[in-house]
Amino acid sequence: MQLNKEYRIGLRAIKTAIAVSICAFISMFLKHEDIFCACIASVICMEQTCEQTLDTGINRFIGTMIGGTVGYIALELCCMLPYYEWIRLCALPICILLVVYICNFINRKFAVSIGCVVVIVILSRSGDSTGSTLTYVIQRVCDTLVGIGIAMVVNRLNFKKFKRVR
Fold first, then answer.
1. Is 92 domain-assigned?
2. Mean pLDDT by 10 residues, the chain (166 residues)
3. pTM check: above 0.85
4. How far apart are the first and last CA of the chain?
5. Domain range spanning residue 85?
């Protein structure tokens, strides 16, 4: 492995750090248990341009909605059956395939990975209280929207007057 001694922290990295900090503070202020969804959304959505950030954010939101819906429905169905824990694990690959299919069917292939991650998160939750799962899915979608919005706002800020960190 060769080290890159020429590397300097760039503006995108700084914007990403600022967006993550804002997401974390907002999550703490709102007393959310999970700060990671908004933070992850801002990291993933931060791109070189505002247009790229918007496109990535839209894909992230669509993937989150699809994964959340598929995961929630699967969890509801699994809870009705005996051996819930085992059936839930067996449903996971089926749900992954369903998310991949839906995202490609609606021509959003860049939403596939986050949709699959959301399904995994939902189906890996312990307990069988689907009422709280619906609340969880809704909260994660809202957190994702906050992260996307913060990434977009931070990306729009004019940082050109700042020089690169040396």
1. yes
2. 88 94 91 81 89 91 93 88 86 97 96 91 67 79 87 84 54
3. no
4. 23
5. 11-156
